[in-house]
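Intended use. Records like the one below are meant for learning the mapping from a protein sequence to its folded structure. Do not use them to infer anything beyond what is encoded.
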Amino acid sequence: MDTSLLQPLIRRFLDSQTTDSLIVQQSQEHRRRSEAARALLTPERIPTLTRDELAALLQDTDAWYGVRGKQLFWRRLFGEHDERLPDLRDGLLELVRRGEAGLTAEDFNALLNALHGMGPAFLSEVLALRFPDRYWLWNGQVQTFLNRQGISLKEELPWGKKGDRGEEYMAVGRHLEDLRRAIGQAAGHVADYLLADLFIYWANRPEKAAVLPARDVTPPKISDESADGDAMGFTGFTPEAFRFLQELAANNNEHWMHKDDNANELRFRRVLREPLRALLQAVAPTVKQLSPIFETEVKFGKVLAGIKKRWPDETGPYHTHLWGAFYRAGRSKQTDAQLFVIIHPDHVNVGFSVAGSQGADVIVRFRRNLQQAPDIFLRLLAALPEDVHIALAERHGMAKKTIVRERGESLLKVLQEAGLIDIE
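Structure written out for the chain above:
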């Protein structure tokens, strides 16, 4: 990574470490979490760690906010009746052993297999907290930052290694080592990877992203984007849109979507994607009037989401809902608060979500503001129509959510502990 153009931004970041309250808070969180990880993840402690101790350690991470199905995550990690707990302890022992010896790409892949249920974001954060001077985080924030530097990890991987998680992790590390050294040189002392991660988080904030040095980067072509939008404007969702999602839920596979010359793919575009695009385009000017910082470009990868899962799971390769959201430019639907609309197989949800699945910093600020100004929040809620409610869910896109019935102080307590909060 060429860090020369980042020097002014690095100096601004270092100057803000004592004046930016959010950075101060995040730095303290990093240190506290790292101390806990170093105390618990030792060869002496790991064999006796309880489920509760391990769950508390994993929940106290940024990666936890990206877990979409939390109950499923615990079942994969611990088993239905904690029968996998010994294997988890063995996997963590192996993490410490390999981490102390010096991690390789093969080691990273082996740990992903051993720690069943953990993905790269979770594994890399545990490594960084346990060994902050040796290992780095690899998550959505890091990927966004690297993209803005014009760095394409896949182009750097050797032939035959495309999609290799371990190789990608090591490629990320080479760039973050350059960044860590640049921060350390500017600070006058050795910087660890947690400080580099804090800089990335700070630089990715919308007001900082606007001053990141421009790079000569040709944006990738989005294959799902087409020019067959509804030029006539939004006229509503027809029963066929809901029928399509119901049939998809019963036939969630590639064959069904693409059989008969892509008949269902073309049907999806006609009855669902293009009507949603037309709706979002119709309201985008009004959203922009609310605040000019909103991202209002209605295209795939921005306001409009895709129906195909990035990581297929046991339920199939497609989501059984389609959605779009307006969020602050420079962030994403996964990392920011947002105004959203979601079409489910039998209903439509419209509302405001406090944070995306990876928006740990937004949740932190929401909780802080809730503590500092609870009366303002309660007054805003009281002014909403009676049919608007607060809903909690394990992950975004869930059709069934828990409606919050509490009010006043009880409501505030519930919201301080909740992870995913929608007002819809």
